[in-house]
Amino acid sequence: MSTESCPVDHADRPTDPVSGCPVSVGAAAFDPFGDAYQADPPEAVRWSRDEEPVFYSPSLGYWVVTRYDDVKAVFRDNITFSPSIALEKITPVSDEAIATLERYDYAMNRTLVNEDEPEHMPRRRVLMDPFTPDRLSHHEPMVRRLTREYVDRFVDAGKADLVDEMLWEVPLTVALHFLGVPEEDMATLRKYSIAHTVNTWGRPSPEEQLTVAENVGKFWQYAGTVLDKLRRDPSGDGWMPYSIRKQREFPDVITDSYLHSMMMAGIVAAHETTANAAANALKLLLENRTVWEELCADPGLIPNAVEECLRHSGSVAAWRRLVTSDTTVGGVPIPAGAKLLIVNSSANRDERHFEDPDSVDIRRDNATEHLTFGYGSHQCMGKNLARMELQVFLEELTRRLPHLDLVPGERFTYVPNTSFRGPEHLWVQWDPAANPERTDPALLHTRHPVRIGEPTTRGLSRTLTVERAEPAARDVVEITLAAPAGTPLPSWSPGAHIELQLGDDVSRQYSLCGDPEDRSRYRIAVLRDPDSRGGSRYVHDELRPGTSVAVRGPRNHFRLDAATRHHVFVAGGIGITPILAMADAVRAAGGSYELHYCGRSADTMALLDRVRRDHGPRLHEHVSDAGTRLDVTTLLAEPADGTRIYACGPQRLLSALDAASAHWPEDALSVEHFTTAGRELDPAVEHAFDVSLADSGLTVRVAPDQTVLAALRAANIDVPSDCEEGLCGTCEAPVLDGEVDHRDVVLTRAERSAGTRMMTCCSRACGASLTLGL
Ligand code: HEM
Ligand code: FES
């Protein structure tokens, strides 16, 4: 391998003995057009997620990014990481192909997805209205009618290729309706849009390049013809006529070049992405039969199943960005001018973000955090249309053909390219004599309400049974929850928590402290809070062996960092629960650690026997009554390289650790807060207020039981979020005016009093209004 064009600093890194280049063997072997990546992109880069999350691929000439946090950070910053190369041809085009494209006056240019600021955001805002939930709901009857018509055609056949017979054409027709273009020429268009995918993200041979260029050229001209037709009468429905009308108001924002480029790119954006997503989803669900059967039994699970399918097997496997200034990604220096392949499908399977990421869990309550739609200011505008289509497909098929099965032995093929991914064919079979509609024709008229927008996490719980409820210290009960009838529970990582639904309106989060390998039960320990309004009181008084409880999760905001060389675990009181799971894991892996367990008196310290038994030599008990209080200043006097402090306990303890570690490296202290506040807002206590959005020129009313974040989303203002509990800082918004009632744990006291920022997921207005810089 030549190292001449390799941008990796050779002086800095040892030369790989096999490749002869400082890039690793894995990086040298990376081939996004090879069989392994085509068959399963996230699996093909598992090695990278584990060992080298940001690497340079000499064969592609791109830096490749594979972990969730890094991919999201790149998406989030569209200034340092410009989207301008998103539609650039990944394989250099031959001169002949260029000549062919020129013959067709091909001039595909900036649309939205590849537009930089300051042009992009004004255009996105002007064109957003047709994507608002309210507007999208008008398309639902059309989506449903089309879906039913296509299912009618094969429902009695007993065998079908779902891609050829439904999943390709319905999204195409929906896309054309949504865009407002005529339906004719569908067969030709189908050929054209495949050509566009190969042209942009594929590696066609020189001969193929010519055919592809022919089709792309024709596609371009077709788009121009349709645009001319629409310009003559732009009064119709659809996003393109709307855009043409908007051009009259904002000619500098909606340019001619934009309209022609979008006319072509819009069809692909709306069509292939959704068709592939639908085929991936059906394949995944039928491969996981019990999950399919659960959906057939409870269509209420479909909205979240759509998200889980998009997470697990999304249709956009990777996306691209151009680095505009010297920077770092995941700590790796990357020079200006470098190109990035951000493998969002790999991010979606990152165990550092998603618990048990390879399994299909349709109750996963953070499934919507997948990056299949991208993230940040370029996040897919059509996501809610796609979600609607996928829900309708799943609903119609689970209801009318619950006995659907994959044809055994089918080998799935994919159009070779880096980014757009879905099987070319999906053969399914069933016994038409067993079609439920033959015995129950009323089924044909049933419809389940489609959810437009992100699904809520309500209703995603699984019902577990209390197996044991035993005292674990004074006022602490240890609860063991068992899965019904041997269904395996999702696995979890140390630091994870679950959320229990306790009575009608109360849900509470508790850290898991059992054995992560045990897929049949979860264990938690709960301290009785004397002021409890239903959470811990309910657990102590109502949960008895045999009681059923609705449980959501597991989720983890408090993970062990694999790079830690020495772990200092600090637990205060019931904060021992996540810390114990972490210490167990580090001990099992033979890692270095010390465990500081603080409590008022030994009899209040939960699970103390187990802690002593398993961690005796590393355990430091700090018991106030016994005069052995923890002195955090002494503990953290000397910062040590590679040492991290993991702490959970009362805010007092965490603040003391924060202060005592001020001279440590910035990320040395990692804490889990007790989340005592329920997520639900009590309308009897809260008041409504207005939020004015300075950039968008909108005013949004926030109801007493609504978060600012939810109100913004209802108005289609995209604000990224992660934890939605005031813990992570993702949903921050600039505050220009008004006093904020801060309820997060992200901002420091000084930042709060400055009053210039707020976390929209939890903080509110003190008065009647706020003005935000959105
Ligand atoms: C942008 C994926 C369906 C319209 C994007 C991006 C991705 C994506 C990855 C780039 C995001 C970024 O750079 O952060 C998908 C997937 C879909 C889907 C997986 C189906 C499952 C649709 C549909 C439409 C659409 C149905 C239109 C009706 C757009 C537009 C953008 C976009 C206009 C550009 C937004 C901007 O840059 O501001 N999509 N998409 N997409 N998508 Fe989608
Ligand atoms: Fe995490 Fe708001 S989303 S702080």
From TrEMBL:
Reported cofactor(s): FMN
InterPro entries membership: 2Fe-2S_ferredoxin-like_sf, 2Fe-2S_ferredoxin-type, 2Fe2S_fd_BS, Beta-grasp_dom_sf, Cyt_P450, Cyt_P450_CS, Cyt_P450_sf, DmmA-like_N
Gene3D superfamilies: 3.10.20.30, Cytochrome P450, Nucleotide-binding domain of ferredoxin-NADP reductase (FNR) module, Translation factors
Keyword Heme: yes
One Gene Ontology MF term: oxidoreductase activity, acting on paired donors, with incorporation or reduction of molecular oxygen
Record's keyword terms, sorted: 2Fe-2S, Flavoprotein, FMN, Heme, Iron, Iron-sulfur, Metal-binding, Monooxygenase, Oxidoreductase
SUPFAM superfamilies to which the protein is assigned, alphabetical: 2Fe-2S ferredoxin-like, Cytochrome P450, Ferredoxin reductase-like, C-terminal NADP-linked domain, Riboflavin synthase domain-like
Top-level taxon of the source organism: Bacteria
Pfam families: DmmA-like_N, Fer2, p450
FAD-binding FR-type domain ranges (all copies): 459-561
Keyword Metal-binding included in the entry's annotation: yes
Domain annotation 2Fe-2S ferredoxin-type: ranges: 689-774
Alphabetized CDD domains for the sequence: CYP130-like, fer2, PDR_like
Record-stated family: Belongs to the cytochrome P450 family.
Protein name: Cytochrome P450/ferredoxin-NADP reductase
Organism of origin: Prauserella sediminis
